Amino acid sequence: MISLGQSGDIPVVGDWNGDGRTKVGIFRNGLWVLDYNGNGQWDGPALDRLISLGHAGDIPVVGDWNGSGTGKVGVFTPGQALFQLDYDGDGTWSAADKLFTWGSPNDTPVVGDWNCSGKAKIGTVNRSQAIWLLDVNGDFVYSGSLVDGGFPWRFSGDIPVTGSW
To answer: Using CA atoms, how far apart are residues 42 and 44, in angstroms rounded to an integer?
Structure first.
């Protein structure tokens, strides 16, 4: 049994330390609490990780943005269609990190390795129009539908799910 966080926290998962095992964490109004050592509990910042990125209302996203083998944190601000990614994974905001807009306000963020490069990339789904917009080449800029994916899928209101099927 894992005990981490409190009611209202958003659960997140990732391989925070690169050991090949997925671990848990929570996102609470811009505060990330990550079970870095993977023992299923909060051991304090000396063993686990506490990161400040985002604000109340942001949606957490997790991915290996740079292909280093570790999960890194990020947030999507729905009203602005704004992504903030801790690209280098050091837990602090720096010049190496990424800040960019993608999709439309109030889209749902999605993460996946859209081109099998070993790096996670972002995307959004406009659920009312059932349109996916994926950053297939991973350059954080929409390069047109021939390079990046923009396509309809199923029905409006569907909940997007990603994976390596």
So the answer is: 6
Of 65, 63, 107, the closest CA to residue 82 belongs to 107
- Evaluated on CA atoms 26, 59, 130, 99, the torsion sign reads negative
In whole angstroms, give the CA distance from residue 143 to residue 132: 14
**Single pTM value for the model:** 0.92
Whole-angstrom distance, CA of residue 96 vs CA of residue 47: 25
Cα separation, 31 vs 70, in Å, equals 19
Q: Tell me the Ramachandran region of residue 95: left when phi exceeds 0, alpha when psi lies from -120 to 50, beta otherwise.
A: alpha
Please state, in angstroms and rounded to a whole number, the distance separating the CA atoms of residues 91 and 72.
8
SS3 79: helix
pLDDT averaged per 10 residues in sequence order, the chain, 165 residues = 88 97 97 96 94 97 97 97 97 96 94 94 90 92 81 75 80
Tell which residue, 112, 107, 114, has the closest CA to residue 83. 107
